[in-house]
Amino acid sequence: APLDQLVGLPDFEAAAKRYLPIANYTYYRNGAAGEWSFRNNLEVFYRYPLRPRTMVDTSNVQSTLPTTILGYNFSAPFFITSAARAGLGNPAAERGLVEAAAAENILYVPSLYATLSIPEIASYKAPSQVTFQQAYLDPSNDTATKLVFDQAKAAGSKAIVFTVDAPAEGNRQRADRYDASEAVLPFTAITWDYYDHLKTLTDLPIILKGIQTVEEAQAAVAHGVPAVYLSNHGGRQVDGSRSPLEVAIEIRAQAPEVFTQTEVYADGGVRYGGDVVKLLALGVRAVGIGRPFMYANVYGTEGVTRAVQLLKREVALDAANAGVADLKNIDPSYVIWKQSCAL
Ligand code: FNR
Questions:
Q1: Measuring from atom 19 of ligand 1, which residue has the nearest CA?
Q2: ipTM value > 0.95
Q3: pTM for the whole thing?
Q4: Among 33, 78, 120, 123, which residue is least crowded by beta carbons within 10 Å?
């Protein structure tokens, strides 16, 4: 389909599905096992409705889209998160993702399992473009870990996003049927001691991606993390894991101070502007998006740029229609996240 006929993120999936070899599309689309978590990530947003306000001047809400992530300025509170193997969608691989992030001034977090190497991706960066580097790390191999940290730093990455929700390979039957599953991860022994040790190997801030409970978010704060990234890996690791929206609600209910003690990011199932608005209302600072940008990357830089622009517009429209004057001052009362709100 011509790019200008795609009007929202789900359209990019439909277009990619028609265009890509089925094995490649399936690698992106896949969730773990029966894919309950994959579906729940998408559907959970409908179970927590908004509480729109009226009689609010929302005419400037679009100008409140820009935010900071770890102190760096970006034009929107959402980012392109780490998804492996962009080469399955486009021969230019990660180039479209990194260039669109630069064009639109949003954060991009390349995967360690990208098709291109860390220096290759960096070669497409704009001067002064801020990226963070995702990493899987093997506690029994500090030499490899140091190499990743040093490459990330040399490439100008400003933070490491250490993925901790994948200690074993995901059980992904849909992709296995096409032999399209991920590289096998080492089974690993990732602990808080290991996190503390990692801090001695780099001076880059190390964010933890894949936190799924309030206790672990609190422990992360106690260990001085620069940010907690709520994620169930897009439902690709363990089926039955909750959506990050539900985890954000658990933190809001039991330890709301976490949202001020550290920055909180979240991803999983975000497809519409209203989804972003709900997560921001709960206290999330920035929202990651995985699959939709991989599908948009079938169209390369132009496709990813269009997807980013469409979502920016939707966030502003949905915030305005929900009666949000300033996205940075949105608060939990805009979402029905606890029973008492609904009364
Ligand atoms: C991922 N994800 C992921 N996460 C990570 O930390 N490192 C990685 O290499 C990958 N690879 C990967 C590949 C593909 C094809 C997908 C779809 C996902 C998980 C990703 O960062 C993110 O958590 C989810 O994609 C978010 O869910 P949505 O936006 O895809 O619904």
A1: 233
A2: yes
A3: 0.97
A4: 123
